[in-house]
């Protein structure tokens, strides 16, 4: 599970990040001008279009939430992508800002179930994205339409045709 989870989510992090930068040329330019932004930038890219959009948890004991009773054993679908766009937590949440401060996104979970591979995924994302933006100055999307993987829990392009 660790290999599969780490491989697909990291691939999606890199694909989603590349696409987000190509759709936001101001931030791509900013990263090229300020390469040290890659550290905060990878957090922002993960927040902006998380590779894991949703997780499922089992209710351990009955609890009242939002006027509803969740019974022991119920499944709860937690939409991380929505939490990462919460305007009460993130000012201007639909804006990509590689320098966003205090970026406590939930793309890798939180608490005791925080993603074991998060440090490695962030490092891989930093290395790949930094290399792409530094070495491929004319990088561009080579398609009109991006097709997405058909998995509602994970988000990533099925393929990402690029040219440079």
Task: Give a short overview.
With 164 residues, this protein is of the alpha+beta class. It has 5 helices and 6 strands.
Helix content: 25-40%
Helix count from the secondary structure assignment: 5
What is the number of independent domains? 1
Distance between the termini: 35 Å
Total strands: 6
Name the average pLDDT. 93
State the shape: globular
Which class best fits the helix and strand makeup? alpha+beta
CATH superfamily descriptor: Cytochrome P450
Strand content: 5-15%
Task: Give, in order, the helices and strands.
Answer: HHHEEEEHHEE
Largest sheet: 2 strands, antiparallel
Oligomeric state of this protein: single chain
Give the uncertain stretches in residue-range form.
Answer: none
What is the CATH class designation? Answer: Mainly Alpha
CATH fold type: Cytochrome p450
By CATH, the architecture is named Orthogonal Bundle
Order of neighbouring strands in the sheet with most strands: 1-4
Radius of gyration: 17 Å
What features would you describe in this structure?
The protein has 164 residues and is of the alpha+beta class. It has a single domain (2-51, 82-163), classed as Cytochrome P450 (Cytochrome p450), CATH 1.10.630. 39% of the residues lie in helices and 12% in strands. It is built from five helices and six strands. The protein has helices at 2-23, 25-33, 38-48, 80-83, 118-135; strands at 54-58, 63-65, 68-70, 75-79, 140-141, 162-163. It has a two-stranded antiparallel sheet. A two-stranded antiparallel ribbon has the order 2-3. A two-stranded antiparallel ribbon has the order 5-6. Helix 1 (2-23) packs parallel to helix 5. It is globular, with a radius of gyration of 17 Å. The termini are far apart.
């Amino acid at each position: 599970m660790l290999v599969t989870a780490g491989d697909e989510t990291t691939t999606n992090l890199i694909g989603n990040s590349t696409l987000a930068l190509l759709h936001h040329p101001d931030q791509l330019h900013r990263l090229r001008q300020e390469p040290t932004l890659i550290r905060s930038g990878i957090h922002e890219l993960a927040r902006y279009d998380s590779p894991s959009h949703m997780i499922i948890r089992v209710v351990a004991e009955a609890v009242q939430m939002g006027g509803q009773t969740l019974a022991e054993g119920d499944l709860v679908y937690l939409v991380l992508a929505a939490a990462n766009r919460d305007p009460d937590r993130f000012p201007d949440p639909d804006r990509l800002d590689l320098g966003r401060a205090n970026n406590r996104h939930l793309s890798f979970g939180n608490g005791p179930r925080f993603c074991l591979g998060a440090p490695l995924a962030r490092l891989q994302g930093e290395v790949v994205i930094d290399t792409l933006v530094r070495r491929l100055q004319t990088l561009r999307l080579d398609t009109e339409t991006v097709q997405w993987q058909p998995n509602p829990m994970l988000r990533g392009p099925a393929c990402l045709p690029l040219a440079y």
